[in-house]
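Rotation project, supervised by the postdoc (A.L.). Task for the rotation student: set up a whole-complex structure prediction and record inputs and outputs verbatim in this book. Inputs entered:
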Amino acid sequence: MTGTPLADGQLPPFENDYHPAWLPTAAFAPVGCRRLALAAEDPHDDAVLRTLAAELAEACATHGGAVVAPHDDPDLLLRLATGRLDGYRVVRRHGRVVVTAATPTALLHGWFHVVRTGEAAFSAPDGSPAEDTDERHAPSSDLRMLDHWDNVDVHPVMGQVERGYAGGSIFYDDGVVRADLSRVTAYARLLAAIGIDRVCLNNVNVHAREARLLTADLPDVARLAAALRPYGVRAHLAVSFAAPMTLGGPATSDPLDPDVRAWWRDAADRVWSAVPDFGGFVVKADSEGQLGPFAYGRDHADGANLLAEAVAPHGGLVHWRAFVYDHTQDWRDRSTDRARAAHDHFAPLDGRFAPNVIVQVKHGPLDFQTREAVSPVLAAMPRTRLALELQVTQEYTGQQQHVCYLGPWWSEILRFRPWGEAPGPDGGAPVTVADAASGRGPGGLGGGFAAVSNVGDDRFWTGHPLAQANLYAYGRLTWDPELDATAVLDEWISLTFPACSPRLRAALHAIMDDSWRTYERYTAPLGVGFMVSPLRAHYGPDVDGYEYSKWGTYHFADRDGVGVDRTRATGTGYTGQYPAPWRDVYESLGTCPDELLLFFHHVPYSHVLHSGSTVIQHIYDTHFAGVEEVEAMAARWEEVVDEVPDGVAARVRERLAEQRRSAVEWRDQVNTYFFRKSGVPDARGRTIY
Amino acid sequence: MTGTPLADGQLPPFENDYHPAWLPTAAFAPVGCRRLALAAEDPHDDAVLRTLAAELAEACATHGGAVVAPHDDPDLLLRLATGRLDGYRVVRRHGRVVVTAATPTALLHGWFHVVRTGEAAFSAPDGSPAEDTDERHAPSSDLRMLDHWDNVDVHPVMGQVERGYAGGSIFYDDGVVRADLSRVTAYARLLAAIGIDRVCLNNVNVHAREARLLTADLPDVARLAAALRPYGVRAHLAVSFAAPMTLGGPATSDPLDPDVRAWWRDAADRVWSAVPDFGGFVVKADSEGQLGPFAYGRDHADGANLLAEAVAPHGGLVHWRAFVYDHTQDWRDRSTDRARAAHDHFAPLDGRFAPNVIVQVKHGPLDFQTREAVSPVLAAMPRTRLALELQVTQEYTGQQQHVCYLGPWWSEILRFRPWGEAPGPDGGAPVTVADAASGRGPGGLGGGFAAVSNVGDDRFWTGHPLAQANLYAYGRLTWDPELDATAVLDEWISLTFPACSPRLRAALHAIMDDSWRTYERYTAPLGVGFMVSPLRAHYGPDVDGYEYSKWGTYHFADRDGVGVDRTRATGTGYTGQYPAPWRDVYESLGTCPDELLLFFHHVPYSHVLHSGSTVIQHIYDTHFAGVEEVEAMAARWEEVVDEVPDGVAARVRERLAEQRRSAVEWRDQVNTYFFRKSGVPDARGRTIY
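Outputs recorded:
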């Protein structure tokens, strides 16, 4: 390895000491054995086109095909066209494929589409040419981004990567940007293969060291951007609202102060001067200790627009997070409800944000719990560009020690209809969350998608090899929210385990398809959330872990019942933040879905669910079932380990053992806790300690 | 400040940027204004005698007296005599005082006795000569030691001082022994004034950096010993049982291995060669991750005797801690009881320890809780030298944020009669814990006293200025366990606040006398213990904080009752570790003291205490009362702040505010927790959240 960045058109070392993920050499065999061509005026003028040319050459060199001239009857022609075209077009005639796109990056995405499709792109199972087709593949939104909560310095509590469960950062190593960034380019390649084209390079909790990326360390940012650029991935930076003060500017960060505005304009000018294709800024303000506009009596529109004004001349974006709440709450004050906070703060500001501001909204009102209601903010700001924020890193879903395939959960969220069955704009189909984030909601404005990455410098990128599927699914489902999560998983299996036997494929589906619901079963019940250990950074059970804390999320379990009353009638009124029909569906015990019951209602342990079970028996049953399911996963893995590479087999085995241990811990603590409180014995007489 | 050690006979700078504690200049006025003499053959040959000479000179120079020849009618003559005499003798005739001792250190202790006594040493309140007297002041035991849990390196979790709440270490600063050790000498002076003459220099959890003190860094140990020596304080070291392996010796630490034995002998030889008056080793083995003899199938007698053999030629001691228990317990296994562990491990070894081994036993069976039963180990090993270990640092008693004067608690422990009213050896008075530790128990062997220090580099030494009283009381009460804790506090007040008004004295007594019981009231009830926050290093409430943890201490609270059944009849059998009468007193609900009820029994919330209250109402009442008492403390302090120096006034005020906040947090969490579980309302209708 050298410290030299890759030369343009030089590919990163794909077969390396880290796992190839969904791009093993074998995945390129169907294209690489054919005649490939690239048609573009002056392909050497563009970094992505040079990459594409190198990809074709590499695939052919490896698998026996040939790069030919566009007019020389290629099996696959990649063609850069002019004109307006979102995504890419795939035309197949007599088994020959032409992919057309209007930008090099879209053409690159089209190339990986063919790679993903594999042999089926060209031929039917019987060897005859595949059926003719003419498909247009446009992404749901042109903003699909990954946020890295990576620190440059190792943070004394949070480490190199905040909420990272896959080793250190691929960008930074203990205080400096890595000398060798070839792995960053390999990462960009993985992202390009799933359609992700924007990455935020640093933690939204911007500490002193990381703040300097905006100024003194711009050359480092330029190096990182250069490492991402060959695969069409643009760099964004998380910046501190306090930056003017901490980086030698004015002694205030007041967004209406002329000196502050000038400072940010200058800062933005310097950033784009160093990185001409820079994407923009990501901001966490007035949140968990980060400074924000509240300090100056301003609101979040003032704050966001300050930065928007600075980046606008460069076509830059501001991703402004709606994750604002009081994190110094008093548990004794039941009138405070953290779930209400984002809506309370942001809904009144609708229409006041500049056009290049994207308000980034966590999918639920709390913080990436295993199960949450969809955030009402997503339906409350038609005149604002809203991005849906997901969490690929498994902070609350097993921290990549547990198998927890999140695709089905994200599908539920993306397909959720915030206005129920009401017709969409112009009388069309009911609007989904994915529609709203993609500009097809009531206001016609979209902010796309963002998510916290689960990648680190771990050999398998994601700690748990099977957690790669979450990163894969995030890219695929945000490109096309209509995709079926299980089908996406199947794609991932085909790519990641080349020559996968039906037996292995069936085992992986059995282990992963329902793993999110399995995780839900053995952890916090019925949507109540946050029964996690503050001591172990949210890993493992602690039923009362946040019950008396300033962070403000409670279950209010007593000897009679459990759950948070968020109704308008008798609770915090949070249900009133939803439009119809959800404001009423959630308000009523008769219609509130079981899986969110305790998020919306405080009920007796004897309350009978729609499922027919009581709350207490449901808790016992799901916790016993969850552990049994984990045991079945582990057994299933043992049946197929001989079919997977040794390293993957061993790592997954080790993690399944930990998952079982942890699931038992969850089961026993949660069951014991509620048995001690309720006094109700398990109807099936199983052991509760 | 310079890096040069103090020259022999040069006093440390007493009035410095740190507080003088109980030795302010004014405390020396009664002696310093008189004619003083020191009688010893060749006083310049001994470091302590040189110190004593300097003390006399300094006192006289400051307060107008004179150092005179012994035959020149001094008001105070300090006389080194030959012969066997423990401690010192004080003879007063016609207002002239002669202090006689057999060793320089005992004579120094005698000097400070006169300083502590003040004007009353010489004259009656009416100015006439004080009554003639002839007193012998011998310490209860010749071993009175302070253990410092100081790390050389700042530990990533535990910091510079493990369980330290008074800033950094006075010995070390971030990886090195301090260049300027004058404050260490000032500390030794404070210790000499309360009769402490041994200090262990480092944390019993011996990490890699600290292990080197035993070998490569012996010159540093010698420097520290030299800084303590002028005041007659001897240095001990905590050593790792793994030392042979980690410090370049044999590849085993097996205590029966000849090479290991040779390695330890060599190591001891080098230590005593560097520090001829070195005291010995302190060892934590097979405990909380520290290696011990169990790793080799050996027992703790084998382990302790290994080190004892090595240090015996030098007259050295081995303090071997009995704090051995399984810290990876399964909370589901109710047959495991951490309280049993020390007795289970050590009692069977009685009689097998070498004569220079002292088994150091924590006062209670758990870990320095606010209230614990006295450890049954103290009554179980008549053929072993046992030391009683106390904790001056307030790990579980408010961490020096809370006023908590521990003198009364230690008095209870020291005066506890492990064999009840049974006559002592030779038919004498019933034996107390202090007797047993002092060699006046059944076997006639004593190991003295040890305690974890509460001192750091904080301006006030102990963080909370009033926590100085705990250090003071530890010295005084272990010198003479018959002293009354309130009288000792009064001594401390007189010295620390010279010219203390009756109003200030009364206020300090009102705030401090009962502060330990106040702390007990608003924290864990009825002896149950360990309801502390693991997240905040044992500070603040977390009722379930250890309920489901591997550390093994539980309250088993459910909707019906609370407490740990440690009876022989139905519980863990721990009561059987006590001799009569306690094995029966604790076994029976009818005789078990209220304050230990939940430590020994699991009872319904409706159980009626000897006090007449129910358990649940007792919890509510004490928690409300505790907060009210803290509020009264703060109000009382405000009445007298004008009489104390600004720095002390402000620091105490700030800590009282935090104590109030914390006490309210304790009250509300504990009350809410038990209200939610029991459903029993407060009989007095106060607010429970």
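Student's summary: The first strand of chain A starts at residue 35 and ends at 39.
Supervisor addendum: The CA atoms of residues 136 and 230 of chain A lie 24 Å apart.
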